[in-house]
Design goal:
This protein is 40% helix and 26% strand. It is of the alpha+beta class. It folds into four domains: 2-152, Beta-Lactamase (2-Layer Sandwich); 158-278, 2-Layer Sandwich (Beta-Lactamase), CATH 3.30.450; 289-373, Helix Hairpins; 382-548, Heat Shock Protein 90 (2-Layer Sandwich), CATH 3.30.565. Helix 11 crosses helix 15 (498-508) and helix 14 (423-440) runs antiparallel to helix 15. The protein is rod-shaped. It starts with a strand and ends in a 10-residue tail after the last strand. Its EC number is 2.7.13.3. It comes from Xylella fastidiosa.
Length: 558
């Protein structure tokens, strides 16, 4: 049996029983002083309790020669004594005989207790197990009787070893981290700091002294830290604190302290493990980002406010312009009705009336767009035949198509194509599309209008053989005030609002509008998709109506 002394651990066995024995009279046979005649214990209860203890217990009488302990005789053992040491009955036997190898060192240790009367506690290893042993003198000093109580602490030693190994691994790992790492015990005392901690605070760790947190934290943040630390220790929980700390160069830096509970292998709370990385740069970046976002929000609000003011201004301006323009257009048309074409003023009045109509259309577009942007446009929804609406639009543009010698094809179902919409606004959609197709298609060009069913929608496509659209401009086609040719010398006028209005009106009807083009000079196709009013409608055979305008006698039907 080899042993090691341990003065740090406090054995929690039933030593109060030994205290009772220490006051008990042990009578020796005077005819043979080395033999114990009897043990007179005041109460059989104590004897029974000692015998039934889980801890091993024995009473040993020390044999002296020339005031030196030379042996020990077992006078009493309990059942656990034999079970722990794997021995049978040893009462009356010599300690040196039972343990010839380790006996002398035990005799020396026990003899010291018998002579001095001082109680000792140590841990010893026997039979591959660890035991916590306590020895004290019992009875009268001249009896040289010792009470020995021991408990198996192998599991505790194993857990302590695992904990120590774990702490070594943790310390090695923590020393390799670039941020300060620290460990508190269960009372809040600093148990460990890593190398980065010493470098950050300018502490010589070899001196073994580490400054308290209150000495390195900003005075305004000390109470915050102490409150959170105290609460975490009390509740055995994690904590987080954003505080300022003085770095080795005297600068105040923001550190984010975060800690988690530490537990021993047997589940006992043993403190906190934490880190405190320097987050000053991160906070500065977050602050700058917040200021940037604040500036961006202010700029966006200002831009939205300016856009609203602009829309209101355009609406007001359009109303103000329309009033005198209506007077000009009305009087010019009235005068044209009163004079014949040979009159010297006829041509001038015709130009005035034509220009006034163009100006009226531009103003109407501006008013419509303003109403949409301000959310003031309302639709009067009713069930409409989409084919009839488009026929009416085509009829309006018959004189223009006739004058340019263009060819117009309408392909539509014989059955009604019912949709839910505002008649005026639906006609406005197709007036814009057909007007653009006529405007950008050269003389003798072809324009196709096709209406067909597409699932639960009707699709209307307007295809022309005109100027076409550049691929890079297609994404901007429906933007406000955007034109493919934005120069002052462009061939076609307008504000660039027509298609933006078309898109808004189609979307207000719950539909979709898109455009495609093979490229410049290859024409374009605009497609409008509107939901059916009735889901189940059979699409009849398509009828092709060919109308060529501009050739005398060639009168087809739409």
């Amino acid at each position: 049996m080899d042993s090691t002394l341990s003065g740090a651990d406090q054995f929690r066995g039933p030593w109060w029983l030994l205290q009772v024995l220490s006051s008990t009279d042990f009578l020796l046979d005077t005819s043979h002083p080395l033999v114990l005649q009897s043990l007179d214990i005041p109460s059989d209860v104590y004897r029974e309790m000692l015998c039934n203890l889980e801890a091993g217990f024995c009473i040993v009488q020390i044999v002296l020669e020339d005031c030196q302990a030379v042996d020990g005789i077992f006078r009493l053992t309990n059942a656990s004594f034999g079970r722990h040491l794997r021995l049978g009955s040893v009462v009356g036997e010599s300690l040196c005989d039972i343990m010839p190898d380790d006996g002398p060192q035990w005799i020396k240790r026990y003899g010291g207790v018998a002579l001095s009367g001082q109680r000792v506690h140590f841990e010893a290893r026997a039979l591959c197990r660890w035991y916590s042993v306590e020895v004290m003198r019992v009875g009268a000093p001249e009896g040289r009787l010792l009470g020995v109580l021991f408990m198996d602490v192998t599991e505790r030693k194993r857990m302590e070893r695992r904990l120590a190994e774990s702490e070594v691994r943790f310390n090695i790992l923590a020393d390799g981290l670039p941020m300060p790492v620290w460990v508190f015990d269960a009372q809040g005392g600093m148990r460990f700091v890593n190398t980065a901690y010493g470098e950050f605070f300018g502490v010589d760790l070899s001196s073994g002294t580490v400054p308290e947190w209150s000495m390195v934290l900003h005075p305004e943040d000390v109470l915050i830290f102490e409150f959170k630390l105290s609460a975490a220790l009390k509740t055995q929980s994690a904590f987080r604190a954003l505080v300022r700390a003085r770095r080795y160069d005297g600068q105040w830096r923001w550190i984010e302290m975060s800690a988690t509970p530490r537990y021993s292998p047997d589940g006992h709370f043993i403190g906190l493990t934490g880190s405190s990385p320097d987050v000053t740069e991160r906070l500065e970046i977050e602050l700058a980002r917040e200021q940037l976002l604040k500036s961006e929000r202010a700029a966006r609000n200002e831009a939205e406010n300016m856009a609203r003011l602009k829309d209101e201004f355009l609406s007001t301006l359009s109303h103000e312009l329309r009033t005198p323009l209506t007077t000009i257009l009305g009087w010019s048309e009235l005068l044209l009705q009163r004079i014949d074409e040979q009159h010297p003023c006829y041509k001038g009045l015709s130009v005035i009336a034509s220009s006034a109509k163009v100006q009226k259309r531009l103003i109407s577009d501006m008013l419509d767009l303003s109403s949409m942007l301000l959310g003031k446009m309302q639709l009067k929804m009713e069930v409409l035949d989409l084919v009839e609406q488009i026929r009416e639009v085509i009829g309006l543009y018959e004189p223009v198509v006739d004058s340019k010698g263009q060819r117009l094809l309408l392909r539509a179902s014989e059955m009604p194509c019912l949709v839910l919409g505002d008649a005026t606004r639906l006609r406005q959609i197709f007036e814009n599309l057909l007007s653009n197709a006529i405007k950008f298609t050269p003389t003798d060009g072809c324009i196709d209008v096709e209406i067909d069913a597409d699932g639960d929608s009707f699709r209307v496509s307007v295809t022309d053989s005109g100027d076409g659209i550049a691929a890079e401009f297609l994404p901007h086609l429906f933007s406000r005030f955007r034109q493919a040719d934005g120069t002052t010398t462009r061939c076609h006028g307008g504000l660039g609002l027509g298609l933006a209005i078309v898109q808004s009106l189609v979307e207000m009807h719950g539909g979709y509008v898109g455009a495609t083009s093979p490229g410049i000079g290859k024409g374009a196709m605009f497609t409008v998709s509107l939901l059916r009013y009735v889901c189940a409608i059979d699409v009849a055979d398509t009828v092709i109506c060919d109308r060529r305008i501009g050739s005398a006698g060639d009168q087809g039907e739409y």
